[in-house]
Amino acid sequence: MPISVELSFWGTIVTLVMGIPIGIITAIKANTWVDTVNMSVALVLYALPSFILAVFVQLLVLWIDKTGIGWPISGWGDPWQYTWPDIQYKLVPILTYGAAGYAYYARLTRTTMLEVLRQDYVRTARAKGLLEKAVIYRHTLRNAIIPLITAIGLLLGLLVTGSFFIENIFSIPGIANITVAAVSQRNYPVIQATTIMVAIGVVFGNLISDILYGLADPRIKTE
After folding, report:
1. Which residues fall within 8 angstroms of residue 92, CB to CB, at 6 or more apart?
2. pLDDT tens across 86-111, in order?
3. Which of 40, 58, 77, 111 is the most exposed place for a label (fewest CB within 10 A)?
4. With 0-12 CB in 10 A as exposed, 13-18 as middle and 19+ as buried, what is 167?
């Protein structure tokens, strides 16, 4: 579990740090070349299943490795240790995990931002002479973030099990390996434990979402 949690945690950080800012930028630059390029890349990444993307990344690393760098394409290293050899093992799987989710959050952020940017109160804020940064971050983003919170809650719920394909392709000794082995061996207790863990994670993610709703919008009352 520590390995799966580490992979999912850093992959989720990469997903959100890349996806949400790029979604905001593409919404602000809608119908420009910036929007076209970013959304084209996001569409390609979104259309590729994570296990196909992982194989492509491995092939790319092997092609680059012809120079003799010796970059590993499987394994993980020591959990929660960040020496240079550990980083070499972890960097590619984490970026692959983040890229697979980045496309979804970039597109979702762009869609919700564009919807809010067309509202009357945004035009009023601009007509009053507010700085564009204030319009974007204080008025637009705060109202556009509600759908993102819902998606983030589900992402937190599937934090550990969301890396199954990545772990299998990169031969990472996490929860995915024992779960896949349990399915092939009909080891029902392990399968049940994984299922219960997913259920607990989803409930916990929904709870976090409900709490964040109240912080993002005071009009939403949480009990």
Report:
1. 57, 58, 61, 71, 73, 170
2. 888 888 888 888 887 788 888 888 88
3. 40
4. buried
Domain 2-216 has CATH 1.10.3720.10: yes
Which amino acid would we find at residue 167? E
Instruction: Please compute, for residue 53, the number of CA atoms within 13 A of its CA located in the half-sphere on the CB side.
Output: 25
Show me where the domains of the chain are located: 2-216
pLDDT in tens, 107-153: 888 888 888 888 888 888 778 877 777 788 777 777 777 777 777 77
- Taking the C-alpha atoms of 135, 141, 144 and 150 in order, what is their torsion angle to the nearest 10 degrees? -170
| Residue 184 three-state SS | helix
| DSSP letter string, 126-168 | HHTT--HHHIIIIIIHHHHHHHHHHHHHHHHHTTTGGGHHHHH
